[in-house]
Specification:
6 helices, about 75% helix, mainly alpha
Length: about 130
Amino acid sequence: MIKTISQLFSIAVLNYFVIFQSKDIDVEQLYKDFESIGFSDNLSNQTLYVFISLSVSVLTVCLVYFFKPFTEMFLVHFLKINFYFLINLVSLSSIYIIYRIYGYSRMYLLIYLFVSSAFLYFVDKTFK
C-alpha cells in the first residue's frame, strides 16, 4: 500500500512539474471536451494540470501491476529499468494523445522519463 501511494504521488508530482515548466503547454482541447459534457464550471488550468498528472500516474501504476507477471518471467534476463522506462513512455504518451495535450517541453519530458523510471525501480527494490 505504501509502495503504491508513493508511486502515485511521485509520478503525479513529476508529471505536474513537466506540465508546469512547459511554457507553451496547450490544454484547450481538454477544456473544450469538459465543456461539451458540462464540466466547465470552476475549471482552471491548474485543475486540468492536476487531472492530467493524476491520470498519467494512475495509468502508469495500473500498467506496472498489469505487466508484473511478465516482468517476473521475461525480464529476468533484461534490465528492469528498461521495463519501467517503457511503461512510463506508454502511459505518458497515451494520456497526452488521448487528452490532446500539445506544447510540452521535450527536455523536461525526457528528464521525467529517466527520473520516474529510476524512482519506480528504486521503490520496487526498496519495498520487496
